[in-house]
Amino acid sequence: xxxxxxxxxxxxxxxxxxxxxxxxxxxxxxxxxxxxxxxxxxxxxxxxxxxxxxxxxxxxxxxxxxxxxxxxxxxxxxxxxxxxxxxxxxxxxxxxxxxxxxxxxxxxxxxxxxxxxxxxxxxxxxxxxxxxxxxxxxxxxxxxxxxxxxxxxxxxxxxxxxxxxxxxxxxxxxxxxxxxxxxxxxxxxxxxxxxxxxxxxxxxxxxxxxxxxxxxxxxxxxxxxxxxxxxxxxxxxxxxxxxxxxxxxxxxxxxxxxxxxxxxxxxxxxxxxxxxxxxxxxxxxxxxxxxxxxxxxxxxxxxxxxxxxxxxxxxxxxxxxxxxxxxxxxxxxxxxxxxxxxxxxxxxxxxxxxxxxxxxxxxxxxxxxxxxxxxxxxxxxxxxxxxxxxxxxxxxxxxxxxxxxxxxxxxxxxxxxxxxxxxxxxxxxxxxxxxxxxxxxxxxxxxxxxxxxxxxxxxxxxxxxxxxxxxxxxxxxxxxxxxxxxxxxxxxxxxxxxx
Length: 499
Hints:
By secondary structure, this protein is mainly α. The chain has a domain at about 160-315 and about 320-495. About 75% of the residues lie in helices and about 0% in strands. Residues about 5-30 have low confidence and may be disordered.
């Protein structure tokens, strides 16, 4: 248990480090990023003149957005960086097999290994926004001063990254997975328990489950079950990406049956007085229809391949020792409490420490708690939140310049290039938003949440878990976008036709 605890402390240290930085500072500029009200451009007509005026008032706006765009481009190039890393890995292995002990030969090996590590790091999607924090921080310091940089980062809310780290770790524990698998097994049994039945059960019931255990937890469980029940059976390349796209889109819309499970909904529910009844009547039933239709279309397209997949006979009868119901119950209670306390980072961390202690005390019925994926995802979200705060200068005028239909379409597109929770949060700050505009922006945010890995907070978790099933270079961003395009269009059509 020592290693998981140390890793988690490291994750908290990453999220809390800005507070330590600020401790030695007498303060910093409280006007960074430039407050939206200070632009005083409500009388400026036209989106382009307004954006140009804001850049003129604070040129750093353009710098921050260029860095943000560079980070987004980097995510689409991650697979290429991983390919380069594998090239140097192979080169190092070849050099090591050669019988040559000279210093020059050893330097070649060291050089190849160094390049392998560098390009592998550049190819880690979860690290990309953290990497681009370096030029962003340097730019803030160079243009605004170090105190402003400290004050800005110290003011960023890291509650969501911490929550995602904890909920992912608990949701991936053996008792929770066994409980979820048992529940989905009953659904899959309707179709005979075949891989096709499991595929449908995981992609239909799993995302809807996210409305009650939160989207990050549902993503973790669904991704792990898809890895075990589907991806390991070696489906075609096209079906792999179609399934990943379905998973991301379904999780994004599937958390809208309640007001506390989907990050973009959580950001506005309290401010706009949306409760679970409101979510069910305005979003939940539409999301359910969209998920069922999307899965049905995908199943029809890949029906032949899905129906020919078979689980090896030796594995169908492999017995497994069940986890006691009492231990499963305790784990579910931990999930419930973490969801309840999701807005209070200190309580979430404290609950996780008790959870780790419970796991240690019931070790015989547990599997090791791996924090590598949760910590990487938390680091990804922390970086995204820091970058996102510097993008409000253009997101706000873009949102306010659109009518409800344009807002729905615009929010769907914007979400692909920015976390959907950031989109809805900025929308909640816009004064005078009509009810129709509120519904449109949140609808677009959840509809577009599967198009890219950065579009929805749980997506990095799913990609991290399933990455190894997409070859040595991992998930290709463009192919993911194409795989998610069809279910996204179906969701868009359902929401438009039922509004």
